[in-house]
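Dear Dr. V.,

Thank you for agreeing to look over these. As mentioned in my earlier message, I'm a first-year student in the group and I'm still getting used to reading structure tokens, so any feedback on how I've presented them would be very welcome. I ran two proteins. I've put each sequence directly above its structure. The first is here:
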Amino acid sequence: MGAVTSSMAARFAFFPPSPPSYSVAADESGGKLRITDVAERDNVDVLKLATKRGTQIVAVYMRNPAASLTVLYSHGNAADLGQMYELFSELRVHLRVNLLGYDYSGYGQSTGKPTEQNTYADIEAAYRCLEETYGVKEEDVILYGQSVGSGPTLDLATRLPRLRAVVLHSPILSGLRVMYPVKRTYWFDIYKNIDKIPLVKCPVLVIHGTADDVVDCSHGKQLWERCKEKYEPLWVKGGNHCDLEIYPEYIKHLRKFISAVEKSAHLRTDSGLSIDSENSRCSTDCRDKPRSSTDQRERSRPSMEREMPRHSIDRRERSRSSIDRRERLRKSVDHSEKANNSTDQPEKARNSIDRFGDMMRSVGLCNIDCFKPTGAGV
């Protein structure tokens, strides 16, 4: 029965980039591993980790000397470490965290095949590395799961009672529920997040786009409703499945969340920091409702934040929307320049645009049909 489940998972859940976007090489002087075809960064370790299921996965650990918390990031479908590398580097800086990202079995240069059970073993190996190699404590870890990555993220989160926090980015209720509006959980379903989320004991932030045409916004809403410790969610108005990072509210809300959990070892809903019940409401079809986020209360003052670069975008919409998104980024950065009186802000804004351009040239595109069975319509 388990084999059948794994077979179904491989059919409609996993689409590793082919060929991989990167290679792993060893320096001639000392043998230190590095990822090719990406910009060299300081304080980055490239690792090969053995899993309990016999595969070897590739991971990157990015240090931030000012960090007190560490993010363990499980990326989405149709992506690998080479495509995520620049985003990870940006998150490390903007969120002031250490970050460990990894490739699932069968993704990038990781060995084996992608299956549901393998991804559980993959994230366990990554977490064990944080504990044993870097001395990171459970209470200082934030698990971040994007799309398919919400599966291994929630599975591990249910087994870590002292975990600091969880971020769910465009999460799924379950694999089957992405394709069909089923009302119950079947034995052959995969990533049964809907059943696991109530078991998570730490604060949970849910981020979802209202125009997500791969995993409907209602998935994020239902998971948020079932959280034991809710943090104010972010419904990104107009956001799709693979472009939330380019919206300025994305990084603002994440920074607020990180700051909140950094100040409290165990943030609770009655603390006054976690929920804005009025702004957090979302209809069953979130596409029909405007975004509600903390940023709505800040619109009266100029934004001082730069947008995060995006790591992927829908192939079908690239020619139509990339120019508009670049223009939005330019306007946001220009607005930040005018609002800030410091002498170094214009230079920082220009650097941000340069990094965005580098990322656009280096990353691949997300396959938004990643959950569709072979032969299914879009």
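The second protein is here, in the same arrangement:
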Amino acid sequence: MFTTILFSQFQKSPIQALAKLSAFVVGVSLFASGCAPQANNNATTTSTPTTATSPTTATKTDSPAPSATGVKLRIGFQKSATVLFSLKGKGTLETVFKAADGTVTWSEFPAGLPMVEALNAGAIDVAYVGEAPPVFAQAAKGSTVRYIAYDPYGVEAEGIVVHKDSPIQTLADLKGKKLAVQKGSNAHYLSVKAIESAGLQVSDVEISFVKPSDGRAAFEKKNIDAWAVWDPFLAAVEVDSGARVLTSAKGLAPNRGYYLASKEFIEKNPETVKTFLNELKKESEYVKKNPAEVAKFLSPALGVDAAILEKAEKRRDYDILPLTEEVITKQQDIADTFARLKLIPQPIVVKEAVWDWK
């Protein structure tokens, strides 16, 4: 049985800092317009394993069962979160938790911001998002969001594209041009860093805040001159329209992914969190070594050509790692940048929201 969690249920939560930004992400489709069906605006929850078959169907695991019996793990995910989606397809976590009379519930979200809002509101226990949503979550009053691990993801997996016949050849050429990006996303941070690296002010570029599906449509109609976006949206527009990558995130932004959990869940179930991370680690190793097989598995579920997904998979990285001082410092720079741009209500100290694996 499926239960629909309306995003509007979270709009009255203490997370007022996200409220305005959420309007930009509600209704975000999994993939660009014309490439895949539009995503539902809601978070859909199910406590039963998906019927999809992953590349490796075996559910055997060497991980110990959660230490506390009867633990209910509620996971927030997006279909583009390859590791979680693969785990969901195999039913691996369900097998592990069943051994301790526990359950696993999956809630699908259209984007990272509504997911961290749900995490802060206590509707889910863990989530996987890009580098920007945790900043907004932590800046919200009464935030309980904690970083539990990071995923390297990769600097080539996001970028700023221009039309193949565009006269724009350098970042400095963006002056006076129209750039589209999803507000509060990792690509938003990339856009700011890219513009400033060219000696320009953010105000020198006409920035439009749009969700990926609308960005794709605007780009194809040439209503915008450039588009900042991430994979697989990036790979698709390159393949489908011949878009030229003006710059990737290399040297500009880390483009990491983060696994998050609520403070309450960590305190009550620290060993369960470790079990969860252990399963993620094993699955990360698998998908990293099998990009073509993973792309074929994801293709029918995402409605995206396998060749496009393979292109995206081959240029990203996977792992489950504890946050280091270097990672925290870079995440702090993202937070400081958003505070300077007044995208969050006040400055934050990222380190205060990092869970110590020890």
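From my reading of the second output: DSSP finds 13 helices and twelve strands in the chain. The longest strand covers residues 145-151. Does that match how you would interpret it?

Kind regards,
E.
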